[in-house]
Amino acid sequence: MKVFLDPIKCSGYGACADICPSLFVIDEFGFAQLLNGGVVAAGDEDSARNAAAGCAENAIGIEG
Ligand code: SF4
Is the pTM of this model over 0.85? Predict the structure, then answer.
C-alpha cells in the first residue's frame, strides 16, 4: 500500500499527522509532508486509510 499527498490541496491542519504519525509529519510551515516515500508499513494500513478519510481537503490518496 502506498499513500500520495497533493501539497496543493493541503491546508495544513495536521489531522493526518495526528491520525497516522508514522506516515505524515507537519513541516515548519504547517503543511503535511509524507514520510517513508508514502510506503505504508505493515500494521499501519488502517491508520493510513483513516488519515485519508479524515483529510478535509481530500489531499491524500491511496494506492493498493
Ligand atoms: S489532513 Fe489533509 S489538509 Fe490536513 S495537514 Fe493532512 S494532508 Fe493537509
Answer: yes
